[in-house]
Protein backbone atom coordinates (compact mmCIF):
# COMPACT_ATOMS: atom_id res chain seq x y z
CA UNK A 1 0.00 0.00 0.00
CA UNK A 2 1.25 3.48 -0.85
CA UNK A 3 0.94 5.72 2.19
CA UNK A 4 -0.36 9.24 1.58
CA UNK A 5 1.28 11.16 4.42
CA UNK A 6 1.39 14.66 3.02
CA UNK A 7 -0.72 17.40 4.55
CA UNK A 8 -2.31 18.17 1.17
CA UNK A 9 -3.66 14.65 0.79
CA UNK A 10 -4.93 14.71 4.36
CA UNK A 11 -6.80 17.91 3.66
CA UNK A 12 -8.26 16.34 0.51
CA UNK A 13 -9.68 13.34 2.34
CA UNK A 14 -10.93 15.54 5.17
CA UNK A 15 -12.75 17.62 2.57
CA UNK A 16 -14.32 14.45 1.15
CA UNK A 17 -15.63 13.33 4.50
CA UNK A 18 -16.84 16.74 5.56
CA UNK A 19 -18.63 17.29 2.24
CA UNK A 20 -20.24 13.85 2.08
CA UNK A 21 -21.18 13.64 5.75
CA UNK A 22 -21.12 16.95 7.54
CA UNK A 23 -21.13 17.22 11.32
CA UNK A 24 -23.63 20.03 10.99
CA UNK A 25 -26.73 18.75 12.78
CA UNK A 26 -28.35 22.14 13.28
CA UNK A 27 -30.27 22.20 10.01
CA UNK A 28 -28.02 24.52 8.00
CA UNK A 29 -26.46 23.47 4.73
CA UNK A 30 -23.82 25.66 3.15
CA UNK A 31 -22.82 23.24 0.38
CA UNK A 32 -25.37 23.14 -2.42
CA UNK A 33 -24.28 19.71 -3.68
CA UNK A 34 -24.32 18.18 -0.21
CA UNK A 35 -27.53 16.31 -0.90
CA UNK A 36 -28.48 12.72 -0.29
CA UNK A 37 -30.77 10.58 -2.36
CA UNK A 38 -34.00 10.22 -0.43
CA UNK A 39 -36.14 10.40 -3.54
CA UNK A 40 -35.00 8.89 -6.82
CA UNK A 41 -36.03 11.29 -9.56
CA UNK A 42 -34.81 12.30 -12.99
CA UNK A 43 -31.47 13.82 -12.05
CA UNK A 44 -28.68 11.97 -10.28
CA UNK A 45 -28.43 14.36 -7.37
CA UNK A 46 -32.02 15.60 -7.10
CA UNK A 47 -33.13 15.05 -3.55
CA UNK A 48 -35.09 16.69 -0.79
CA UNK A 49 -32.88 16.03 2.23
CA UNK A 50 -29.23 16.43 3.18
CA UNK A 51 -26.56 13.89 4.02
CA UNK A 52 -26.23 15.16 7.56
CA UNK A 53 -29.92 14.27 8.05
CA UNK A 54 -29.07 10.66 7.22
CA UNK A 55 -25.96 10.81 9.42
CA UNK A 56 -27.93 11.90 12.44
CA UNK A 57 -30.76 9.44 11.78
CA UNK A 58 -28.33 6.54 11.36
CA UNK A 59 -25.77 7.29 14.05
CA UNK A 60 -28.24 8.29 16.73
CA UNK A 61 -31.24 6.04 16.03
CA UNK A 62 -30.48 3.13 13.69
CA UNK A 63 -26.89 2.11 14.39
CA UNK A 64 -27.24 1.50 18.17
CA UNK A 65 -30.41 -0.55 17.66
CA UNK A 66 -28.85 -2.67 14.91
CA UNK A 67 -25.77 -3.36 17.01
CA UNK A 68 -28.05 -4.73 19.71
CA UNK A 69 -30.20 -6.75 17.30
CA UNK A 70 -27.51 -8.41 15.19
CA UNK A 71 -25.87 -10.16 18.14
CA UNK A 72 -29.06 -12.17 18.72
CA UNK A 73 -29.05 -15.83 17.72
CA UNK A 74 -31.54 -15.48 14.87
CA UNK A 75 -29.30 -12.97 13.06
CA UNK A 76 -25.82 -14.13 14.06
CA UNK A 77 -26.08 -17.61 12.50
CA UNK A 78 -26.00 -17.54 8.70
CA UNK A 79 -26.19 -20.65 6.55
CA UNK A 80 -23.95 -20.42 3.50
CA UNK A 81 -22.12 -22.70 1.08
CA UNK A 82 -18.54 -21.49 0.80
CA UNK A 83 -17.53 -24.47 -1.35
CA UNK A 84 -19.56 -23.57 -4.44
CA UNK A 85 -17.42 -23.83 -7.56
CA UNK A 86 -16.68 -20.59 -9.43
CA UNK A 87 -18.76 -20.83 -12.64
CA UNK A 88 -16.72 -18.33 -14.65
CA UNK A 89 -13.02 -19.19 -14.35
CA UNK A 90 -10.66 -21.68 -12.77
CA UNK A 91 -10.43 -21.04 -9.05
CA UNK A 92 -6.66 -20.63 -8.71
CA UNK A 93 -6.62 -17.88 -6.10
CA UNK A 94 -7.14 -19.56 -2.73
CA UNK A 95 -6.02 -17.33 0.13
CA UNK A 96 -3.67 -19.12 2.54
CA UNK A 97 -3.55 -16.31 5.10
CA UNK A 98 -4.87 -17.31 8.52
CA UNK A 99 -7.30 -14.39 8.67
CA UNK A 100 -8.95 -15.52 5.41
CA UNK A 101 -10.34 -18.71 6.90
CA UNK A 102 -13.88 -19.18 8.20
CA UNK A 103 -14.66 -21.61 10.98
CA UNK A 104 -18.12 -23.19 10.55
CA UNK A 105 -20.28 -23.90 13.58
CA UNK A 106 -20.24 -27.19 15.41
CA UNK A 107 -23.62 -28.87 15.74
CA UNK A 108 -23.82 -28.16 19.46
CA UNK A 109 -23.33 -24.43 18.82
CA UNK A 110 -26.39 -24.07 16.59
CA UNK A 111 -29.69 -23.09 18.27
CA UNK A 112 -32.09 -26.01 18.34
CA UNK A 113 -34.71 -24.13 16.33
CA UNK A 114 -32.33 -23.64 13.38
CA UNK A 115 -31.40 -27.31 12.98
CA UNK A 116 -32.90 -29.65 10.45
CA UNK A 117 -34.15 -27.00 8.02
CA UNK A 118 -37.70 -27.59 9.28
CA UNK A 119 -39.64 -24.33 8.88
CA UNK A 120 -41.28 -23.28 12.14
CA UNK A 121 -43.62 -20.76 10.55
CA UNK A 122 -46.15 -22.96 8.78
CA UNK A 123 -47.96 -19.89 7.49
CA UNK A 124 -45.02 -19.30 5.18
CA UNK A 125 -45.46 -22.60 3.38
CA UNK A 126 -48.01 -24.76 1.69
CA UNK A 127 -50.01 -26.93 4.06
CA UNK A 128 -48.83 -30.55 4.35
CA UNK A 129 -49.36 -32.92 1.48
CA UNK A 130 -51.83 -34.91 3.57
CA UNK A 131 -54.36 -32.13 3.10
CA UNK A 132 -54.34 -32.88 -0.60
CA UNK A 133 -54.45 -36.67 -0.38
CA UNK A 134 -57.33 -38.24 -2.24
CA UNK A 135 -58.62 -40.14 0.80
CA UNK A 136 -59.04 -37.00 2.86
CA UNK A 137 -60.64 -35.06 0.03
CA UNK A 138 -62.87 -37.98 -0.88
CA UNK A 139 -64.20 -38.27 2.67
CA UNK A 140 -65.25 -34.63 2.60
CA UNK A 141 -66.82 -34.97 -0.80
CA UNK A 142 -68.74 -38.11 0.14
CA UNK A 143 -70.18 -36.33 3.16
CA UNK A 144 -71.26 -33.48 0.91
CA UNK A 145 -72.76 -35.94 -1.54
CA UNK A 146 -74.87 -37.52 1.20
CA UNK A 147 -76.18 -34.12 2.24
CA UNK A 148 -77.02 -33.20 -1.35
CA UNK A 149 -77.87 -35.22 -4.38
CA UNK A 150 -74.59 -36.95 -5.26
CA UNK A 151 -75.66 -37.76 -8.79
CA UNK A 152 -76.61 -34.18 -9.55
CA UNK A 153 -74.09 -32.14 -7.56
CA UNK A 154 -70.97 -34.25 -7.00
CA UNK A 155 -67.68 -32.58 -7.93
CA UNK A 156 -64.42 -34.50 -7.62
CA UNK A 157 -61.96 -32.13 -5.91
CA UNK A 158 -59.24 -34.67 -5.10
CA UNK A 159 -55.62 -33.75 -5.78
CA UNK A 160 -53.09 -36.54 -5.87
CA UNK A 161 -49.76 -36.44 -4.07
CA UNK A 162 -48.01 -36.48 -7.45
CA UNK A 163 -49.92 -33.42 -8.60
CA UNK A 164 -49.23 -31.69 -5.31
CA UNK A 165 -45.49 -32.23 -5.82
CA UNK A 166 -45.84 -30.80 -9.31
CA UNK A 167 -47.57 -27.73 -7.85
CA UNK A 168 -44.61 -27.38 -5.49
CA UNK A 169 -42.24 -27.35 -8.47
CA UNK A 170 -44.37 -24.70 -10.14
CA UNK A 171 -44.28 -22.60 -7.00
CA UNK A 172 -40.50 -22.89 -6.71
CA UNK A 173 -40.16 -21.84 -10.35
CA UNK A 174 -42.52 -18.88 -9.90
CA UNK A 175 -40.73 -17.72 -6.75
CA UNK A 176 -37.39 -17.94 -8.55
CA UNK A 177 -38.63 -15.38 -11.08
CA UNK A 178 -38.74 -12.82 -8.26
CA UNK A 179 -35.23 -13.51 -6.91
CA UNK A 180 -32.26 -11.26 -7.60
CA UNK A 181 -29.71 -13.77 -6.25
CA UNK A 182 -28.84 -17.27 -7.35
CA UNK A 183 -30.17 -20.14 -5.27
CA UNK A 184 -27.30 -22.26 -3.96
CA UNK A 185 -27.22 -25.78 -5.38
CA UNK A 186 -26.27 -27.54 -2.18
CA UNK A 187 -27.04 -26.73 1.46
CA UNK A 188 -24.24 -25.00 3.27
CA UNK A 189 -23.04 -24.83 6.84
CA UNK A 190 -23.96 -22.44 9.61
CA UNK A 191 -21.40 -19.74 10.33
CA UNK A 192 -21.37 -17.59 13.45
CA UNK A 193 -20.98 -14.07 12.05
CA UNK A 194 -19.78 -12.73 15.40
CA UNK A 195 -16.85 -15.15 15.43
CA UNK A 196 -15.97 -14.37 11.80
CA UNK A 197 -16.13 -10.56 11.58
CA UNK A 198 -15.58 -8.69 8.34
CA UNK A 199 -12.19 -7.01 8.36
CA UNK A 200 -9.06 -6.52 6.28
CA UNK A 201 -7.44 -9.92 5.76
CA UNK A 202 -4.70 -9.00 3.29
CA UNK A 203 -6.59 -10.46 0.32
CA UNK A 204 -5.83 -8.19 -2.64
CA UNK A 205 -3.98 -8.14 -5.94
CA UNK A 206 -5.02 -9.66 -9.30
CA UNK A 207 -7.56 -12.08 -7.82
CA UNK A 208 -9.51 -9.39 -5.95
CA UNK A 209 -9.23 -6.99 -8.91
CA UNK A 210 -10.62 -9.64 -11.25
CA UNK A 211 -13.74 -9.96 -9.08
CA UNK A 212 -14.54 -6.25 -9.18
CA UNK A 213 -13.55 -5.88 -12.84
CA UNK A 214 -15.97 -8.64 -13.78
CA UNK A 215 -18.73 -7.01 -11.74
CA UNK A 216 -18.26 -3.53 -13.17
CA UNK A 217 -17.21 -4.25 -16.76
CA UNK A 218 -19.41 -7.26 -17.53
CA UNK A 219 -22.48 -6.86 -15.32
CA UNK A 220 -23.05 -3.15 -14.70
CA UNK A 221 -24.91 -1.11 -17.28
CA UNK A 222 -22.42 1.25 -18.90
CA UNK A 223 -22.61 4.37 -21.07
CA UNK A 224 -21.10 4.27 -24.53
CA UNK A 225 -17.36 4.96 -24.81
CA UNK A 226 -16.63 4.27 -21.14
CA UNK A 227 -13.40 2.22 -21.10
CA UNK A 228 -12.61 2.66 -17.40
CA UNK A 229 -13.76 0.15 -14.79
CA UNK A 230 -15.52 2.92 -12.83
CA UNK A 231 -18.05 5.14 -14.56
CA UNK A 232 -17.35 8.84 -14.15
CA UNK A 233 -20.20 10.76 -12.55
CA UNK A 234 -20.15 13.21 -15.46
CA UNK A 235 -20.99 10.39 -17.91
CA UNK A 236 -23.87 8.95 -15.93
CA UNK A 237 -26.35 11.62 -16.99
CA UNK A 238 -26.55 9.90 -20.36
CA UNK A 239 -27.84 6.71 -18.76
CA UNK A 240 -31.46 6.04 -17.91
CA UNK A 241 -32.64 6.19 -14.32
CA UNK A 242 -32.72 2.43 -13.75
CA UNK A 243 -29.23 1.82 -15.14
CA UNK A 244 -27.79 4.62 -13.02
CA UNK A 245 -29.48 3.17 -9.96
CA UNK A 246 -27.94 -0.24 -10.63
CA UNK A 247 -24.43 1.16 -10.93
CA UNK A 248 -24.80 3.34 -7.87
CA UNK A 249 -26.04 0.42 -5.78
CA UNK A 250 -22.97 -1.65 -6.75
CA UNK A 251 -20.66 1.32 -6.23
CA UNK A 252 -22.23 2.00 -2.84
CA UNK A 253 -21.72 -1.62 -1.80
CA UNK A 254 -18.09 -1.46 -2.95
CA UNK A 255 -17.51 1.75 -1.01
CA UNK A 256 -19.10 0.26 2.10
CA UNK A 257 -16.88 -2.84 1.95
CA UNK A 258 -13.80 -0.66 1.53
CA UNK A 259 -14.75 1.37 4.60
CA UNK A 260 -15.16 -1.84 6.65
CA UNK A 261 -11.66 -2.95 5.64
CA UNK A 262 -10.22 0.43 6.58
CA UNK A 263 -12.08 0.52 9.89
CA UNK A 264 -10.94 -2.97 10.93
CA UNK A 265 -7.45 -3.15 9.54
CA UNK A 266 -4.57 -5.20 10.92
CA UNK A 267 -2.34 -2.56 12.50
CA UNK A 268 0.47 -4.76 13.88
CA UNK A 269 3.54 -3.77 11.88
CA UNK A 270 7.28 -4.28 12.09
CA UNK A 271 9.75 -2.38 9.98
CA UNK A 272 6.95 -1.00 7.84
CA UNK A 273 5.61 -4.48 7.03
CA UNK A 274 2.28 -5.86 8.16
CA UNK A 275 2.63 -8.85 10.44
CA UNK A 276 -0.10 -11.41 9.75
CA UNK A 277 -0.46 -13.48 12.88
CA UNK A 278 -3.11 -15.35 14.84
CA UNK A 279 -3.49 -12.33 17.08
CA UNK A 280 -2.75 -8.82 15.94
CA UNK A 281 -4.09 -5.41 16.73
CA UNK A 282 -7.06 -4.29 14.68
CA UNK A 283 -8.26 -0.72 14.25
CA UNK A 284 -8.88 2.23 11.94
CA UNK A 285 -6.31 2.74 9.20
CA UNK A 286 -6.50 6.34 8.02
CA UNK A 287 -3.80 5.88 5.39
CA UNK A 288 -5.72 2.99 3.84
CA UNK A 289 -8.86 5.13 3.71
CA UNK A 290 -6.88 7.85 1.95
CA UNK A 291 -5.56 5.36 -0.57
CA UNK A 292 -9.05 4.12 -1.41
CA UNK A 293 -10.98 7.42 -1.51
CA UNK A 294 -8.57 10.31 -2.05
CA UNK A 295 -9.36 12.25 -5.25
CA UNK A 296 -5.70 11.96 -6.26
CA UNK A 297 -5.79 8.15 -6.22
CA UNK A 298 -9.31 7.79 -7.66
CA UNK A 299 -9.27 10.26 -10.56
CA UNK A 300 -11.49 12.53 -8.51
CA UNK A 301 -14.24 9.90 -8.10
CA UNK A 302 -13.76 9.06 -4.40
CA UNK A 303 -16.39 11.56 -3.15
CA UNK A 304 -18.94 10.14 -5.62
CA UNK A 305 -18.31 6.60 -4.38
CA UNK A 306 -18.97 7.76 -0.84
CA UNK A 307 -22.19 9.42 -1.92
CA UNK A 308 -23.25 6.16 -3.57
CA UNK A 309 -22.96 4.54 -0.15
CA UNK A 310 -25.74 6.85 1.03
CA UNK A 311 -27.77 5.96 -2.06
CA UNK A 312 -27.62 2.24 -1.24
CA UNK A 313 -28.32 2.90 2.44
CA UNK A 314 -31.56 4.65 1.54
CA UNK A 315 -32.50 1.95 -0.95
CA UNK A 316 -32.24 -0.73 1.74
CA UNK A 317 -33.90 1.52 4.32
CA UNK A 318 -36.89 1.81 1.98
CA UNK A 319 -36.97 -1.99 1.51
CA UNK A 320 -37.20 -2.47 5.28
CA UNK A 321 -40.03 0.06 5.47
CA UNK A 322 -41.90 -1.55 2.58
CA UNK A 323 -41.57 -5.06 4.03
CA UNK A 324 -42.31 -3.91 7.60
CA UNK A 325 -45.90 -5.27 7.70
CA UNK A 326 -44.50 -8.66 6.70
CA UNK A 327 -41.49 -8.52 9.04
CA UNK A 328 -43.68 -7.53 12.00
CA UNK A 329 -45.40 -10.91 11.78
CA UNK A 330 -42.31 -13.10 11.61
CA UNK A 331 -41.62 -15.26 14.64
CA UNK A 332 -37.77 -15.16 14.45
CA UNK A 333 -37.76 -18.67 15.83
CA UNK A 334 -34.61 -20.21 17.34
CA UNK A 335 -36.19 -22.52 19.91
CA UNK A 336 -35.69 -20.26 22.91
CA UNK A 337 -38.95 -18.58 23.90
CA UNK A 338 -37.34 -15.74 25.83
CA UNK A 339 -34.71 -15.05 23.17
CA UNK A 340 -37.29 -15.13 20.38
CA UNK A 341 -39.63 -12.72 22.17
CA UNK A 342 -36.77 -10.28 22.80
CA UNK A 343 -35.78 -10.53 19.13
CA UNK A 344 -39.33 -9.81 17.96
CA UNK A 345 -39.52 -6.75 20.20
CA UNK A 346 -36.12 -5.49 18.97
CA UNK A 347 -37.13 -5.93 15.31
CA UNK A 348 -40.40 -4.08 15.87
CA UNK A 349 -38.54 -1.25 17.59
CA UNK A 350 -36.18 -0.82 14.62
CA UNK A 351 -38.97 -1.04 12.07
CA UNK A 352 -40.96 1.61 13.95
CA UNK A 353 -37.96 3.94 13.71
CA UNK A 354 -37.38 3.09 10.03
CA UNK A 355 -40.96 3.98 9.16
CA UNK A 356 -40.56 7.39 10.78
CA UNK A 357 -37.89 8.48 8.29
CA UNK A 358 -39.55 11.36 6.40
CA UNK A 359 -38.17 11.01 2.86
CA UNK A 360 -37.84 7.42 1.76
CA UNK A 361 -36.40 6.23 -1.53
CA UNK A 362 -39.14 6.25 -4.18
CA UNK A 363 -38.95 3.06 -6.22
CA UNK A 364 -42.30 3.67 -7.94
CA UNK A 365 -40.68 5.95 -10.55
CA UNK A 366 -38.62 3.04 -11.89
CA UNK A 367 -39.51 0.51 -14.57
CA UNK A 368 -42.48 2.45 -15.90
CA UNK A 369 -43.12 2.39 -19.62
CA UNK A 370 -44.72 -0.83 -20.77
CA UNK A 371 -42.99 -3.76 -22.42
CA UNK A 372 -39.58 -2.13 -22.76
CA UNK A 373 -39.55 -1.28 -19.07
CA UNK A 374 -40.30 -4.90 -18.18
CA UNK A 375 -37.52 -6.13 -20.48
CA UNK A 376 -35.12 -3.73 -18.76
CA UNK A 377 -36.34 -4.93 -15.36
CA UNK A 378 -35.58 -8.56 -16.26
CA UNK A 379 -32.16 -7.55 -17.60
CA UNK A 380 -31.59 -5.66 -14.35
CA UNK A 381 -32.46 -8.83 -12.38
CA UNK A 382 -30.27 -11.11 -14.49
CA UNK A 383 -27.29 -8.79 -14.11
CA UNK A 384 -27.61 -8.91 -10.35
CA UNK A 385 -28.00 -12.70 -10.38
CA UNK A 386 -24.68 -12.86 -12.24
CA UNK A 387 -23.06 -10.73 -9.55
CA UNK A 388 -24.31 -13.14 -6.89
CA UNK A 389 -22.65 -15.96 -8.88
CA UNK A 390 -19.36 -14.05 -9.01
CA UNK A 391 -19.19 -14.16 -5.20
CA UNK A 392 -18.35 -17.86 -5.50
CA UNK A 393 -15.13 -16.83 -7.28
CA UNK A 394 -13.72 -14.87 -4.31
CA UNK A 395 -10.50 -16.56 -3.15
CA UNK A 396 -10.62 -15.46 0.49
CA UNK A 397 -13.15 -17.46 2.52
CA UNK A 398 -13.98 -14.64 4.91
CA UNK A 399 -14.31 -12.15 2.04
CA UNK A 400 -16.55 -14.66 0.25
CA UNK A 401 -18.72 -15.08 3.35
CA UNK A 402 -19.34 -11.36 3.76
CA UNK A 403 -19.54 -10.75 0.03
CA UNK A 404 -22.25 -13.37 -0.39
CA UNK A 405 -24.15 -12.09 2.65
CA UNK A 406 -24.09 -8.44 1.57
CA UNK A 407 -24.94 -9.20 -2.06
CA UNK A 408 -27.87 -11.31 -0.86
CA UNK A 409 -28.90 -8.41 1.37
CA UNK A 410 -29.00 -6.04 -1.62
CA UNK A 411 -30.74 -8.70 -3.72
CA UNK A 412 -33.40 -9.18 -1.05
CA UNK A 413 -33.97 -5.41 -0.92
CA UNK A 414 -34.38 -5.35 -4.71
CA UNK A 415 -36.82 -8.28 -4.49
CA UNK A 416 -38.91 -6.38 -1.96
CA UNK A 417 -38.88 -3.18 -4.00
CA UNK A 418 -39.39 -4.56 -7.51
CA UNK A 419 -40.94 -8.04 -7.46
CA UNK A 420 -44.43 -6.59 -6.98
CA UNK A 421 -45.14 -9.11 -4.22
CA UNK A 422 -44.78 -6.52 -1.47
CA UNK A 423 -46.68 -3.70 -3.15
CA UNK A 424 -49.93 -4.57 -1.41
CA UNK A 425 -49.91 -6.19 2.00
CA UNK A 426 -52.41 -9.00 2.60
CA UNK A 427 -51.86 -10.52 6.00
CA UNK A 428 -54.89 -12.80 5.83
CA UNK A 429 -54.16 -16.35 4.78
CA UNK A 430 -56.19 -18.46 2.39
CA UNK A 431 -57.90 -21.76 2.95
CA UNK A 432 -54.63 -23.64 2.79
CA UNK A 433 -52.96 -21.37 5.34
CA UNK A 434 -50.29 -19.80 3.18
CA UNK A 435 -49.11 -16.36 2.22
CA UNK A 436 -48.91 -15.17 -1.33
CA UNK A 437 -45.21 -14.46 -0.85
CA UNK A 438 -42.50 -15.05 1.71
CA UNK A 439 -38.86 -14.42 2.54
CA UNK A 440 -36.60 -17.29 3.46
CA UNK A 441 -34.76 -17.04 6.75
CA UNK A 442 -31.43 -16.53 4.96
CA UNK A 443 -32.92 -13.56 3.09
CA UNK A 444 -34.12 -11.93 6.31
CA UNK A 445 -30.75 -12.51 7.99
CA UNK A 446 -28.90 -11.11 4.96
CA UNK A 447 -31.24 -8.11 4.68
CA UNK A 448 -30.72 -6.99 8.28
CA UNK A 449 -27.00 -7.82 8.40
CA UNK A 450 -26.37 -6.19 5.02
CA UNK A 451 -28.16 -3.06 6.17
CA UNK A 452 -26.13 -3.28 9.37
CA UNK A 453 -22.91 -3.15 7.35
CA UNK A 454 -24.09 0.00 5.53
CA UNK A 455 -25.11 1.54 8.84
CA UNK A 456 -21.69 0.81 10.30
CA UNK A 457 -19.97 2.33 7.26
CA UNK A 458 -21.76 5.65 7.79
CA UNK A 459 -20.96 5.47 11.51
CA UNK A 460 -17.29 4.75 10.76
CA UNK A 461 -17.04 7.70 8.39
CA UNK A 462 -17.94 9.92 11.32
CA UNK A 463 -15.27 8.25 13.46
CA UNK A 464 -12.65 8.73 10.73
CA UNK A 465 -13.65 12.38 10.53
CA UNK A 466 -13.10 12.75 14.26
CA UNK A 467 -9.78 10.93 14.02
CA UNK A 468 -8.64 13.18 11.22
CA UNK A 469 -9.64 16.30 13.13
CA UNK A 470 -7.54 15.12 16.08
CA UNK A 471 -4.55 14.18 13.92
CA UNK A 472 -4.46 17.33 11.83
Kindly describe this structure.
The protein has 15 helices and six strands. The protein starts with 6 loop residues before the first helix and ends with a helix. The strands form three sheets. Strands 1-2 form a two-stranded antiparallel ribbon. It has a two-stranded antiparallel ribbon with strand order 3-6. A two-stranded antiparallel ribbon has the order 4-5. Helix content is 50%, strand content 3%. Helix 2 (51-69) crosses helix 15 and helix 14 packs across helix 15. The chain is mainly alpha-helical and 472 residues long.
Number of separate helices: 15
Shape: globular
Would you identify the regions where 5 or more consecutive residues have pLDDT less than 50? Answer: 1-16, 18-44, 118-145, 148-152, 269-278, 428-435
Strand order of the largest sheet: 1-2
Extended strand count: 6
Largest sheet: 2 strands, antiparallel
Strand content: under 5%
Give the overall average pLDDT.
Answer: 77
Helix proportion: 40-55%
Gap between N and C termini: 21 Å
H/E topology pattern: HHHEHHHEHHEEEEHHHHHHH
What's the gyration radius in Å?
25 Å
Structural class: mainly alpha
